[in-house]
Write a structure and sequence with these properties.
Oligomer: single chain
Distance between the termini: 36 Å
Keywords: Plasmid
Strand content: 35-45%
Order of helices and strands: EEHEHEEEEHEEHEEHEHEEEEHEE
Largest sheet: 9 strands, mixed
Helix content: 10-25%
Shape: globular
InterPro entries: Gp3-like
Length: 370
């Protein structure tokens, strides 16, 4: 393999599946209407004509259940969740703020992003229904022609809890494995209290069916733990799910003055920009010195492991330009030691390279962006 020439390609996303259709109210405004079946529509952007036709060939026009496989064992990759707020207008929204209930990354008013405190349910934008808990489910459709990733987005609390519970149970039974195991995903009715009144809503339900427990355990035992990880296209958080965010749930461009976060009153969003103390072994690069196309992102997680007496660390980084989450690792002693002092949420500049027989890119350069 020639480095920088014959790098492996990601499995692309080929389609999106929806849990509702767009309809128009008496005032002429579009709004989403939930359905009791999966919706796939060709739109030339998220789903091609070929992908939509292949889906309908297997499942028809209004399927209530489909067979899926996750491309990885890691739920953080195949079911990322975040509090997301979009700014702009219907059909042209852009990610404005993304948080996890404790910290968030938000536009700073100067064309960049900065870390702030996430007030979650106490945030004025959450209370105004302009910030939502967004779950993105990433999977393959093994019964549908073609190889590609499909995505389904949801802001339903009940769907999220159903999926989390099922995934945890399956992974407990399979010693942590769930990748490429055929699972049944259904749209099912559920009685819930909405505004104090009972209402039938439709949620997702995930099950492992038509498999004997012993057969499953025997199959899982034969799967090598160091099996290469499937590389696939990650969700783009900058892409607003327009079926879930209607006009009233988008932050208007003119509703917030063009200013830096530091000048917005703390009583409103309580900004707390990340402050990373200097770390020996990690250079600091002023953001003004970064050139066009530099790989800059926010540190999401650091996973430390020991192998044959040597310490390794794997970083998960959310890239500033695309919103993609990428991974990189190192076993270099001084760099591992420096990374132990690196706070989550710190903006970093990173360069990495793919090595043969190493599934995760290896860090070549790492610096703190100030």
């Amino acid at each position: 393999m020639i480095k920088g020439f014959s790098e492996p390609k990601r499995i692309p996303r080929v389609g999106k599946i929806y849990l509702g259709v767009k309809t128009v109210n008496d005032g002429g405004k579009e709004y989403p209407k939930a359905t009791d079946y999966f919706v796939v529509r060709a739109d030339g952007t998220n789903t091609s004509d070929q992908a939509a036709a292949a889906f309908h060939e297997v499942y028809g026009d209004k399927p209530k259940e489909i067979t899926i496989c996750f491309p990885t064992d890691d739920p953080e990759q195949f079911m990322p969740q975040a509090l997301c707020s979009y700014k702009g207008s219907q059909g042209r929204g852009r990610l404005w703020c993304k948080g996890d209930g404790e910290t968030a990354v938000r536009e700073d008013g100067n064309g960049g992003y900065t870390q702030v405190h996430c007030a979650y349910k106490e945030c004025e934008f959450y209370k105004a229904k302009q910030c939502k808990e967004l779950t993105r489910l990433i999977f393959l459709l093994p019964e549908v022609k073609g190889i590609g990733i499909w995505e389904l987005d949801s802001t339903s609390y009940y769907t999220s809890q159903n999926l989390i519970g099922s995934i945890q149970l399956i992974r407990q039974l399979t010693r942590g494995r769930i990748a490429m195991i055929p699972l049944t995903l259904r749209v099912v009715p559920m009685q819930a209290q909405v505004a104090g009144h009972p209402k039938t809503i439709y949620v997702l339900d995930l099950k492992l069916e038509n498999v004997k427990m012993m057969d499953l355990l025997n199959k899982v035992a034969t799967i090598a733990l160091d099996e290469p990880t499937m590389d696939f296209e990650r969700p783009n958080d900058n892409e607003m799910p327009d079926d879930l965010y209607i006009e009233s749930s988008i932050v208007p461009d003119d509703s917030i003055p063009s200013q830096t976060l530091s000048s917005i009153p703390k009583s409103t969003i309580n900004p707390q920009p990340a402050k990373q103390n200097p770390i020996s072994g990690l250079p600091v690069i002023p953001v003004a010195d970064l050139g066009e196309g530099e790989t800059v992102g926010v540190l999401v997680d650091s996973e430390f492991k020991k192998h044959k007496g040597q310490d390794f660390v794997k970083l998960t980084i959310e890239m500033a330009r695309t919103g993609d989450r990428v991974e990189a690792m190192t076993g270099e002693t001084e760099l591992v030691s420096a990374i132990r002092q690196l706070q989550k949420g710190t903006t970093i500049h990173i360069k990495s390279t793919k090595l043969e027989r190493v599934p995760t890119p290896v860090i070549q350069e790492l610096a703190i962006v100030s």
